[in-house]
């Protein structure tokens, strides 16, 4: 919980608020004239990227995917950014690596700070957005690698199918969370390009190619995640199909064994009846004669099943 601030030589400042306290909220409200709806949104989780243009500032919510190497899952966080003529306020939980690294870089590199916060905040915003996008590509590469491992494992008969099911479900959740995080990127970046840069919002980009690159990147990321979604669904169907096939083979084997033993069970029941004049009763070697009859009946069924290829 802290409020940090750095300022460039030109007087532009970045206020970075991490896990804001009640005091931070009160000071922020008294210092800046934020719209009530924007102020409320800044301190609650929305999980939907968006941009709002106000008369004297621009408000941006950016949902950011974060990879947890321990659990190997994609987590979702957000940064709320208020952009004025000569100031920027960011509010977040301090978990976004790209934002933490950007803060450390500008805190120690005054030249870079003065370069990004000069005439207005446009270069800073472009830098921040590019850092977020650059962090997203390795996550997509990781998803591609994991899907390739799962694909190879599916056709490996030595693999545990139950563990594969868990891996596939984990990847489906990761892809879903990634899509949830980046689904609004194209709209936010395009909105910057169409509205914030041309009609006001106090942000003026001297080089529109910066934003065009971001819009293209957002489209590429979404397309890659669409492809990942289709692939993981196909892998799940393939794995489920193999599990179903294996179960069918097991049931087929058990059914065959039960059927082969059925004549023996019937004969055992018949000859086991407590009758005085039953077949073979009192005959020499009656036990072995019954065993031979059982073996013959089972052998006949076995040969019949083999010819029908029901035992493969």
Automatic annotation (TrEMBL):
Keywords: Cell membrane, Membrane, Transmembrane, Transmembrane helix, Transport. It is found in: Cell membrane. The chain crosses the membrane at residues 254-275, 287-306. One of its GO terms (cellular component) is plasma membrane. Pfam families: CorA. Gene3D superfamilies: CorA soluble domain-like (3.30.460.20), Magnesium transport protein CorA, transmembrane region (1.20.58.340). One of its GO terms (molecular function) is cobalt ion transmembrane transporter activity. InterPro entries: CorA_cytoplasmic_dom, CorA_TM1_TM2, MgTranspt_CorA/ZnTranspt_ZntB. It is a multi-pass membrane protein. Belongs to the CorA metal ion transporter (MIT) (TC 1.A.35) family. This is Magnesium transporter. The lineage of its organism: Bacteria, Candidatus Kerfeldiibacteriota.
């Amino acid at each position: 919980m802290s409020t940090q601030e750095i300022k460039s030589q030109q007087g532009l400042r970045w206020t970075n608020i991490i896990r804001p306290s009640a005091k931070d909220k009160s000071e922020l409200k008294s210092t800046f004239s934020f719209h009530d709806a924007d102020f409320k949104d800044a301190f609650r989780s929305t999980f939907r990227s968006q941009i709002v243009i106000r008369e004297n500032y621009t408000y941006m919510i950016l949902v950011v995917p974060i990879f947890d190497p321990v659990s190997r899952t994609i987590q979702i966080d957000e940064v709320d950014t208020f952009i004025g003529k000569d100031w920027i306020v960011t509010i977040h939980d301090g978990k976004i690596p790209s934002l933490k690294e950007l803060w450390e870089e500008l805190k120690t590199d005054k030249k870079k700070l003065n370069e990004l916060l000069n005439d207005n905040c446009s270069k800073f915003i472009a830098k921040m957005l590019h850092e977020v996008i650059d962090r997203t590509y390795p996550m997509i590469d990781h998803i591609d690698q994991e899907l390739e491992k799962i694909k190879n494992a599916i056709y490996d008969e030595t693999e545990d199918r139950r563990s594969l099911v868990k891996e596939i479900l984990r990847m489906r959740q990761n892809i879903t969370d990634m899509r949830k995080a980046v689904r609004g990127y194209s709209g936010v970046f395009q909105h910057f390009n169409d509205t914030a840069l041309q009609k006001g919002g106090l942000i003026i980009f001297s080089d529109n190619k910066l934003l065009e690159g971001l819009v293209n990147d957002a489209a590429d990321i979404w397309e890659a995640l669409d492809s990942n979604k289709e692939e993981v669904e196909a892998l799940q169907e393939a794995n489920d199909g193999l599990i179903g096939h294996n179960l069918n083979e097991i049931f087929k084997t058990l059914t065959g064994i039960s059927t082969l033993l059925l004549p023996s069970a019937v004969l055992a029941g018949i000859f086991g009846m407590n009758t005085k004049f039953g077949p073979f009763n009192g005959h020499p070697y009656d036990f072995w004669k019954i065993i031979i009859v059982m073996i013959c009946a089972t052998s006949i069924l076995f040969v019949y099943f083999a010819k029908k290829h029901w035992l493969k």
